[in-house]
Design a protein that fits this description.
With 119 residues, this protein is α/β, with parallel strands linked by helices. It has a single domain, classed as Hypothetical Protein Ychn, Chain: A (3-Layer(aba) Sandwich), CATH 3.40.1260. 34% of the residues lie in helices and 22% in strands. It is built from 4 helices and 5 strands, in the order E-H-E-H-E-H-E-H-E. Strands 4-3-2-1-5 form a 5-stranded parallel beta sheet, with helices on both faces. Helix 2 links the parallel strand 2 and strand 3. Helix 1 packs parallel to helix 2. The longest helix has 16 residues. The protein starts with a strand and ends with a strand.
Length: 119
């Protein structure tokens, strides 16, 4: 099975990148590809329940809707552990299907046949 990682490094600091990342992730998971969204740097904020609720980039579905659709289709979200800790975010408020991981997990995914794009 093909493997695809969408790395998202932005949140409300660049809602266009955050939104397009989830648009691409939805296309991937809908195609039957094993898909992981990897949130790092500012992107880790998207892993907090309620954070993306008011993000709606013109021309796209609201970000929360895109994230919910991705999760409901079986997509996984991985969050960079040091990035998450640096920002003092709350593990108890993680979005569904979200796991905090170290960089080694992303490296393993990519070195065993995964492809990646970054937004």
């Amino acid at each position: 099975m093909a493997k695809f990682m969408v790395s998202i490094t932005s949140a409300k600091d660049n809602t266009d990148k955050a939104t397009v990342g989830f648009v691409v992730a939805n296309a991937s998971v809908a195609s039957g590809v094993e898909t992981v969204v990897f949130l790092s740097t500012e992107g880790v904020r998207l892993a907090q329940v309620g954070y993306a609720d008011d993000v709606h980039e013109e021309g796209f579905a609201p970000l929360k809707e895109l994230m919910d659709k991705y999760i409901n289709a079986g997509g996984k979200i991985w969050v960079c552990s040091p990035c998450f800790k640096k920002r003092g975010l709350d593990e108890a408020k993680l979005t569904p299907s979200t796991t905090i991981v170290g960089g080694a997990k992303a490296v393993e995914f990519l070195t065993t046949g995964g492809t990646s794009v970054t937004y």
